């Protein structure tokens, strides 16, 4: 493909990928001039939150007004980090409701643990704030639907942190898969292959003095603190995380579903096997998983999306640590979000290589801000993302149940399986909590 053709292809594919999902939200979104500044606050300056702070602090049209964290040490570090970049210290809070009360705040970035994503997003929308929330957008299927309803009810822009939706090389790869270049794409395979660490076994103990653990728990069940729960390790606990399928696998599942071109819909059937084959520690989610999602499409057509997870394997597959393959009737495309893509014809003949790249956080943040200004839906709009996040939830539920599940894609319920339906939502505090979403 010559450079001119490729540039045209990238432009057209980007327009299709983002533009098709960018329906006008509503005229009630506040109009902005191109030179107007954004006042943004960040909740949860941990690993990914810190990346957002450093990135957004350098945007010429962004002011970081507040940071919020329940850990005093991490909060102080975040304030110093912003001040060193902007020469202005933001306000610091450990209760994000103080941020939502500030009418000058246009948007919040939510980089809290998974169990806070939906409650905080819903509250922020209801307070009139636009939201950038980290992946996976939801902790469970029901909360994901409530997030969509809150965004539409309040006419807020809600972007989820699956940055590949704004990354040029993945826009190009998925558009190529959908273009017919490899014929009709019938299946896609996605893998999450890397080496995680053993979190050990610990007993409950007293939280550090700098941590407001009760506030960290929020609406989740009241369980005792233990040292292998924080920071970041909460991902492996049912009450707080979504396992590595939701932590890292969601990126590649989102890309795989995008290129498979099944539209914004759920799979009809899910089959899975897996468990803890390697680690002998406190983590509750599988370290090994194989999941098959089957979609029923118009005209009696069916497609499959397959997910493989091995978080004890320090080696690459097909040359990629995490990756995607789209299998078409005339060839296949191999892609990785942190590398690039290549197309193959019969007998594994390489016929085209696309551009390389990495997930583009800056482009994704810029897309979010531009959509606040324009009133369009963002590249990883909360509704687009819901159908990818739910793949993680559905896959984890099927793995825990150990049987094939049939899903009512309209009502978002399992057919004839009361046990599986118990996992569509989650357990909340017995005494109730101010952040429990209405309608759960």
Keywords:
Dihydrodipicolinate Reductase, domain 2, 12 helices, 6-stranded parallel beta sheet, Rossmann fold, 10-stranded mixed beta sheet
What does this structure look like?
This protein is of the alpha/beta class and 440 residues long. The protein has two domains: 165 residues, NAD(P)-binding Rossmann-like Domain (Rossmann fold, 3-Layer(aba) Sandwich); 202 residues, Dihydrodipicolinate Reductase, domain 2 (2-Layer Sandwich). It contains twelve helices and 16 strands. The strands form two sheets. The protein has a ten-stranded mixed β-sheet with strand order 14-13-12-11-7-10-9-8-15-16. A six-stranded parallel β-sheet has the order 3-2-1-4-5-6, sandwiched between helices. α5 packs parallel to α6. The longest helix is centred in the C-terminal third of the chain and has 20 residues.
Shape verdict: globular
Strand content: 15-25%
Specify the structural class.
alpha/beta
* Oligomeric grouping of the chains: single chain
Order of helices and strands: HEHEHEHEHEHEHEHHEEEEEEEHHEEH
Compute the gyration radius: what is it?
Answer: 21 Å
Short description:
By secondary structure, this protein is an alpha/beta fold. The chain folds into two domains: 21-165 and 362-381, Rossmann fold, CATH 3.40.50; 168-200 and 224-358 and 388-421, Dihydrodipicolinate Reductase, domain 2 (2-Layer Sandwich), CATH 3.30.360.10. It has helices at residues 3-19, 47-56, 72-86, 97-100, 114-126, 141-154, 168-178, 213-217, 243-260, 361-374, 382-401, 418-421; strands spanning 38-43, 62-68, 91-93, 107-110, 130-133, 158-160, 185-193, 269-275, 288-296, 302-310, 322-328, 331-335, 341-344, 350-353, 405-408, 413-414.
